[in-house]
Amino acid sequence: MRKPLTNILIKPAGPDCGMACGYCFYSGKGALFPDTSVHRMSEAVLEETIRQLMAGPHGELSVSWQGGEPTLMGTAFYKKAVEFEERFGRGKTVGNGMQTGGILINREWARLFRDYKFLVGLSIDGPEHVHDRYRRTRAGGPTWEKVRDAAHLMLDEGVAVNALSVVNDYSVRFPEETYGFLKQLGLSYMQFVPCVEPDPADPSRAAHFSVSGAEFGKFLITVFDLWRADFADGAPTTSVRFFESLLFSYAGLPPSECTLMDECGPYVVVEHNGDVYSCDFFVEPSCRLGNVTEGRLEEMLNSPAQNDFGRRKAFLPERCLDCRWLERCRGGCTKDRLRDPRDGGLNHFCEAFSVFLEHADGEFRRLVDDWRRKQEALERTRRALASGSVERNDPCPCGSGRKYKKCCGREPSALA
């Protein structure tokens, strides 16, 4: 089955960045482009990329702008990008998302994000001592204060902002403090990304800043219990992407995180010069699919090379095939099997998944059961309303025991 071209990731400034995060896996990618030390996408490459994305029959599309640091392109670049989306999209819905370190965000940026409805993923690892441990300027200075202020500014302007927090060897010690800080800051949508990269001095070992599976498992358990304790009226008041993706899996729906899918490769990456790669974590010569100025993105997405890349995820060690949690983790992210040779082909976070799912499995099942009961109750209510057999003072057909006017009748949007 051909994969639809509905989602692409664009790196318009390549690996360029004003920060020098100690754990960054992308900073060395400049070696792939030796002809220049400054990497910027031309308007011609941008236009061709957007034109190809919009050319398909699909009515809903998404573009993720990442880096390096994508705000190095300036606001005029993204105004032009939206102009191309409108010109070539002819009424299609396009969701733009940007992942940024935040140090260049000012009111002009915040208003652009608001006006063009960009979803912003702000890289902020936690409170000051956690964030500044590794997220430093090129001169070695701290960045936390600028990033915190950027969060306040964007939230004040009505921008949709998510927190992207890297879990490293230091931040893993502070799950309660980090979760509480992000909530207090107003970033109720959170994504926790575990860090593992090879040690440049000794590629046979994970780098010192990497987090171990055992530590990350404890971190997940603590954050899960905090997340669960924050539910109100049976619904979460904060969003943790990994937990919600697992809930989709438990409900028999496709998970939102590609790390939990059977195969990889549902999107492609377009670098600043138009080169196309299989995945954000595999921008390397062996995973180069072509160039947008010389071929079609849809064909690259469905090429034998991309299909082979996607199937690599399903090639699991025998130990994984007998694991009770395989249905949930699906081996995790392919890159996490390759960063520490001592893992022997297993995912570096295998232990984390195991201890976490042992802790949370029953609760996930209860949450899915509750969700299904609510869906059934809403369906009963819809049928009753359609038949005209319920009055405002009648017992609500959903089975809550309350009067309809104080239950489903109070929130008609819930029945939409």
Largest sheet: 10 strands, mixed
Rounded mean pLDDT is 93
The secondary structure category is: alpha/beta
Query: Over all CA atoms, what is the radius of gyration?
Result: 23 Å
Poorly predicted ranges:
411-416
Tell me roughly what share of residues is in helical segments.
25-40%
Task: Please tally the helical runs, counting DSSP H or I stretches of 4 or more residues.
Answer: 13
Query: How many beta-strand segments?
Result: 12
CA-based shape: globular
β-strand amount: 5-15%
Q: Widest sheet: strand order? A: 9-6-5-4-3-2-1-10-11-12
Order of helices and strands: EHEHEHEHHEHEEEHEHEEEHHHHH
The end-to-end span amounts to 33 Å
Account of the protein in words:
The structure is a single chain. The chain is of the alpha/beta class and 416 residues long. The protein is built from 13 helices and twelve strands. It has helices spanning 43-54, 75-89, 107-115, 128-131, 144-156, 175-185, 213-229, 241-250, 297-301, 304-311, 318-321, 326-329, 350-387; strands at 7-11, 60-65, 93-100, 119-123, 160-167, 189-194, 198-199, 202-206, 239-240, 268-271, 275-277, 288-291. It has a ten-stranded mixed beta sheet with strand order 9-6-5-4-3-2-1-10-11-12. The protein has a two-stranded antiparallel sheet with strand order 7-8. Helix 1 (43-54) packs parallel to helix 2. The longest helix is centred in the C-terminal third of the chain and has 38 residues, at 350-387. The model is unreliable at 411-416 (pLDDT under 50).
What is the topological layout?
Elements: E1 7-11, H1 43-54, E2 60-65, H2 75-89, E3 93-100, H3 107-115, E4 119-123, H4 128-131, H5 144-156, E5 160-167, H6 175-185, E6 189-194, E7 198-199, E8 202-206, H7 213-229, E9 239-240, H8 241-250, E10 268-271, E11 275-277, E12 288-291, H9 297-301, H10 304-311, H11 318-321, H12 326-329, H13 350-387
Parallel strand pairs: 1-2, 1-10, 2-3, 3-4, 4-5, 5-6, 6-9
Antiparallel strand pairs: 7-8, 10-11, 11-12
Helix pairs in contact: 1-2, 7-13
